[in-house]
Amino acid sequence: MKRILAVAALILGLASISQAQTQTTTVTIVAAASLGTITPTPAHFYANTSAPISLASSASGFNSTCTATAGTAALPLTYSSTTQALTGTLTAAMTNLTVGASLTITITCTPATLTLNTPVTLPNGQVGKTYSASLLTLTGLSGGVPPYTWTCNSPCPLPAGLALSSSGVLSGVPSAAGSATFNFTVTDSSKVANLEKEKPALHKAGA
């Protein structure tokens, strides 16, 4: 097997030395929790050759401000809301690597500020009737990196029979008439200390 590969490499080398060897793209993520798993295309490229590159993410962290470097050089990127991927062009200088080496692309993304509209008046409910309301929808939450985690701040005076889920849904079957005002906190999933946002607000729930 080694002998066959050596002959093939020699033939390619005579045909085009600059494109004889392929290299590998390695992606390093600074805000890993924000971006999920990044899949670069192409995973391999020819040495000393420019090529377009697409960086597709398994998460939605690209709906933010992102910068990248290919090796030590800045790699300008464009975000597509359709494909939800970052695209750019590797230059010949960026792919000028020794045989067997890989190109490391480092991506840094800063999520948009986490914001929501408050205060919010929740729809009224009826005793003994199933109740459900989404704070995610009613607050118009935007920014940060989803998914978001919702918690009712202590003390949490929700009407008897109702509970707030971590996904921001207030639901249950009210067991007594009355009303309640409570505070909640929502946190995004950026996992970066200086990017985590908390936004308490007053809300009224009817029972």
Question: What topology does this entry show?
Answer:
Elements: H1 2-15, E1 22-29, H2 32-35, E2 38-41, E3 44-46, E4 51-57, E5 65-70, E6 73-74, E7 78-80, E8 85-90, E9 102-110, E10 120-121, E11 131-134, H3 135-139, E12 149-152, E13 162-164, E14 169-172, E15 179-187, E16 201-206
Parallel strand pairs: 1-9, 10-16
Antiparallel strand pairs: 1-3, 2-4, 4-8, 5-6, 5-9, 7-8, 11-14, 12-15, 13-14, 15-16
Task: Provide structural commentary.
The chain has 207 residues and is mainly beta. The protein folds into two domains: 18-110; 120-206, Immunoglobulins (Immunoglobulin-like, Sandwich), CATH 2.60.40. 11% of the residues lie in helices and 39% in strands. The strands form four sheets. The protein has a five-stranded mixed beta sheet with strand order 3-1-9-5-6. A four-stranded antiparallel beta sheet has the order 2-4-8-7, with no helix packed on it. Strands 10-16-15-12 form a four-stranded mixed beta sheet. A hairpin with a 4-residue loop joins strand 13 and strand 14 (169-172).
Tell me about the biggest sheet? 5 strands, mixed
Query: Unreliable runs, pLDDT <50, ≥5 residues?
Result: 1-19, 192-207
Q: Which structural class should the secondary elements be placed in? A: mainly beta
Mean pLDDT: 76
User: In sequence order, what are the helices and strands, one letter per element?
Assistant: HEHEEEEEEEEEEHEEEEE
Beta fraction = 35-45%
